[in-house]
């Protein structure tokens, strides 16, 4: 029997201006996806654990980007 870990929670998109600038100082934004539960699931999967993450994402380019990132 293999152990399975299931996490659930929102997937969050973080917007960050590059180069440690403030939003007022930058004309560009980088985006990253994460969230506490997703980060834990990713770390456990990297260590070889059998992990599934349950969440809901929007049915648009933001949701598609989140799914392709994870």
Task: Name the descriptors.
70 residues; alpha+beta; 2 helices; elongated; two-stranded antiparallel sheet; single chain; two-stranded parallel sheet
Oligomer: single chain
Distance between the termini: 27 Å
Largest β sheet strand count, sense and barrel closure: 2 strands, parallel
Order of helices and strands: EEEHEH
The total of beta strands comes to 4
Helix fraction by DSSP (H/I, runs of at least 4): 25-40%
The largest beta-sheet arranges its strands as: 1-4
Low-confidence stretches: none
Q: Compute the gyration radius: what is it?
A: 15 Å
Number of helices: 2
Mean pLDDT: 90
Shape: elongated
Assess the beta-strand content as a share of residues: 25-35%
SS-derived structural category: alpha+beta
What's the quick description here?
Helices cover 29% and strands 26% of the residues. It has helices at residues 36-46, 61-69; strands at residues 5-8, 12-16, 30-34, 51-54.
């Amino acid at each position: 029997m293999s152990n399975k870990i299931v996490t659930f929670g929102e997937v969050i998109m973080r917007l960050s201006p590059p180069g440690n600038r403030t939003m007022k100082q930058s004309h560009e934004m980088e985006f990253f996806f994460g969230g506490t539960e997703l980060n834990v699931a990713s770390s456990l999967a990297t260590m070889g654990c059998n992990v599934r993450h349950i969440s809901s994402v929007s049915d648009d380019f933001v949701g598609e980007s989140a799914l392709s990132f994870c």
